[in-house]
Amino acid sequence: SVKEKEVWGNIEAGKRYKGVVKSIMDFGAFVDIGVGIDGLIHISQLSDQPVDHVSEVVQVGQRVRVRVINLDYKRSRIGLSLRDVTE
Question: Which of 7, 14, 19, 84 is deepest in the core (most CB within 10 A)?
Answer without folding.
Answer: 19
